[in-house]
Amino acid sequence: MQAADKGHAINLNGEDLRIAIVQARFNAAITDRMAQACQAELERLRVQTRHIRHVTVPGALEVPVALEALAKLDDYDALVAIGCVIRGETYHFELVANESGAGVTRVALDHGVPVANAILTVENEAQALARAEEKGRDAAQVAVEMANLLEDLT
Fold this sequence. Notes:
50% of the residues lie in helices and 21% in strands. It is α/β, with parallel strands linked by helices.
């Protein structure tokens, strides 16, 4: 599970890691798929099921608030943000996409905890469905890799 990466090994061993997933319920047909793929990948990477916490919030703008609360607990090695924002006919898409992304980043930087941002921003539902499972798996891998990297760096 490790590969060379310009001077350091990529560590995708999830043993002993505690990871929390925050999932937006808005566009649940998509975010449910993402969360399921993320959970399955975390387990494949050997994160114990009992060390994975999964919470849901109404939408993408609420994801950073829940991430912040979880980060303050200092119980998790990494967090995962799951959501889906589909472009509509108004400026609301840009607002939600930009603010949720900024909030996710702020939690990671303020608390020094990795946050895998899997909030999809797409043009339509077909694009979201085509990306959902892969994005969920990728988020799990990012969470595990970054948790291990930060452990190595500190």
